[in-house]
Amino acid sequence: MVFVSVAIDLALDWLFTYSVPAECTGKLRVGQLLRVSFSRREVRGFALRVWTETEEEAAAAAAGRSYAIKPILGIADEAPFFSAAVLQLVKWIAAYTCSPIETCLKAAVPAAVLKPNARPRELLFVEPALSPERVALTKRQQELYDNVARVGGGWMQQLCREFKTTPASLRALAEKGCVTVAVRAKRRDPLAGRAVMPTAPLELNALQRAALETISVADRPVLLHGVTGSGKTEIYLQAIARELEQGRGAIVLVPEIALTPQTVRRFAGRFGDRVAVLHSALSDGERYDEWHRIRTGRARVVVGPRSAVFAPVENLGLVVVDEEHDGSYKQDETPRYNARDVAVMRGRFERCKVVLGSATPSLESWLNAKKGKYALASVPERVAGRSLPEVHLLDLAEETAAYGHVPIFSKFLLDAIAERLKRGEQTILFLNRRGYARICECKECGHAIACPDCSTSYTYHQADDCLRCHVCGGWTRVPTRCPACGAREFSFVGIGTQRAEAALLKCMPHARVLRMDADSTSRKHSHDDILSQFRARKADVLLGTQMIAKGLDFPNVTLVGVLNADASLNMPDFRASERTYQLLAQVSGRAGRAEKPGEVFIQTSQPDAPAVAAAARSDYAGFADAELAGREEDFLPPYSKLALAHFKSQSDEQARGWCALYAAALEKWPGLSVGEPMPSPLERAEGWFRHQLLLRAPKMATIAEAWKWIVAERPAPSGLRVALDVDAISFT
Questions:
Q1: pLDDT tens digits, residue range 441-458?
Q2: pLDDT reported for residue 335
Q3: Residues 6+ apart with CB under 8 A from 649
Q4: How far apart are CA 549 and CA 542, in angstroms?
Q5: Taking the CB of residue 273, how many other CB atoms lie within 10 A of it?
Q6: Least buried of 98, 132, 234, 712, by fewest C-beta within 10 Å?
Q7: pTM of the entire structure?
Q8: SS3 for 557?
Q9: Euclidean distance between CA atoms 466 and 6, whole angstroms
Q10: Distant-in-sequence, close-in-space partners of 353: CB < 8 Å, separation ≥ 6
């Protein structure tokens, strides 16, 4: 008898045993999607292990009783959803992140692919017959046949529009044997209607060639440290071309959906239909078709954000993680994996090359390169000998003294923008806060209007004249009276992208301004549409949040302005300085990427802060070495492993009590450092009270073992949600 362990989508971290009927035995393979009976209903699950006898049966026989095991109902899809290497990767993620195996399997396959009714889109295709019968045709039928033959056939709806005919006329030709009409699957193409220009490989300079050779011969992950504008993407393209020549495939990860269309066009321009795209902004049909193109080998190069790391590429030769330092690679729900680390592990399991690219690498990757765990390929110069932009630090303390308030735009920055308008050049302005004003407060008593479900103030959005919570998404109208004192007047404090846009247009009414933030990019293709307009020089200024801070390449941009460099610097997080350096260096790198030199103005109240000063000097190595020295002294990552335990309940007392209970129990675990139980910086979100506990150890295995023990010893009661965020990068 053959048995199979099945993972069902229940998040119990438990595998269920089923027997395999004789008619399925020869077809069953690990990684397949099966139909099984569970709790008197039919469900689907993945086959994770197949064997011929069970410990359960042996125990039942020894006890003198029968042990009934249900048979599987059938195989839902004969082609495995997971290769052996990807299944090994998913199991590693489950163990490393302390997550249920079922949840990890589900995260590795797009939901659109697993829907029971998911299928290809099928339409009627008309094709001229290879040897059409010689039958009498009317003049109109002959003309229609000649047109169909001339274009080689096509989709029925398309031919009807193009030749101003009807389906009945085409079917009449089919009845006479002149054409065939058959149902075919039509690809739902994410790039349909988007211009893709074919490109040829560019001549690499000596530094780029050396980096490419390092990648080609590396026996370990490669950290490609190249300054902004150094041509890292061309290195990726040529490294992938070498893999394709050997019959291998590639995955390219980008941190933001905003970067995906631009990157996909570059890769599709080089590799054509062999490129597939996977990201959450696609329709279900597009995701279904793209995933199956990859699975069947029709697409060999995959581009997408973090979930694309699981793409079912056979014979994988290379995984590229562009902007590897970016926090967007960290999943913020179970399983809380970091796609950068998953890419490295997939490279190990698939025995393929892995490239981590960045102008501002994470300190974890930088230390791995210094220790020799990663190979280092450096490209310290821009292509064609172009210089890095000149950076100016504008002290907002001096501006405040001159104006009597903190200005949105320094006079120096406004003058620089005006100069670019005269010269027909473009400007990028960066402000990492959307909305109009951060706080709506009463002018009389200072009471700030706050979200009732979250411990945060509402943000005022002028576009729709309402107050919005950026945590839960709730909204309300601006009140007519202060709920605290009854006064009628309110002031709007703080600056968001909407307010900055309005202020800029007031200063420069003739400037053409595009705003790019979460509010302006909510509809499909909106990221691409905004960037395409800016690339076509239909706007003078692009103002946006962090989605414009990296990866974008506009030859006519000669000025970058950072409106508030202190926002990330003042976060209660030991990584605040690292993130600030990365953000400033990345956004500065958008200027002067072509023949025209670039200039950067950074508005800050802390011009002497190490991260700000180092970013102005483009001194990554100096900044990283100083930051690493402090981390080592304080036993912080990358010199230790860190995890954050989250406790959420609609009862503050329950969340606080269980956080303290876990802390007291875990303090006794050998080798584990346990922080003080405390409320999260965002104490309440979406109606849930939140507390947290910081865990540190030399190895993640210590944290994982301790966590599995405490969860088993003290399982969370009803109403309490407990989760562990390994390698946490957010402490809010």
A1: 999 999 999 999 999 999
A2: 95
A3: 655, 658, 688, 689, 719, 720, 721
A4: 11
A5: 13
A6: 712
A7: 0.90
A8: strand
A9: 49
A10: 215, 218, 222, 239, 243, 317, 318, 319, 347
